[in-house]
Design brief:
Largest sheet: 3 strands, antiparallel
Order of helices and strands: EEEEE
Distance between the termini: 13 Å
Strand order of the largest sheet: 3-4-5
Shape: elongated
Radius of gyration: 10 Å
Number of strands: 5
Strand content: over 45%
Helix content: under 10%
Structural class: mainly beta
Number of helices: 0
Length: 48
Amino acid sequence: MAAKEGYCVKCKAKREIKEAKDIVMKNGRPATQGLCPECGTKIFKIGG
């Protein structure tokens, strides 16, 4: 399985999502939630 990648707004760069969890939003769409490995800020990516 490839590591999930998202955009960290604090670092202003694409980062690999640490502790990534697949979740489902209220409207039923899939999303991924986790942490930035550099600064620890939450990263949220809509879509699988």
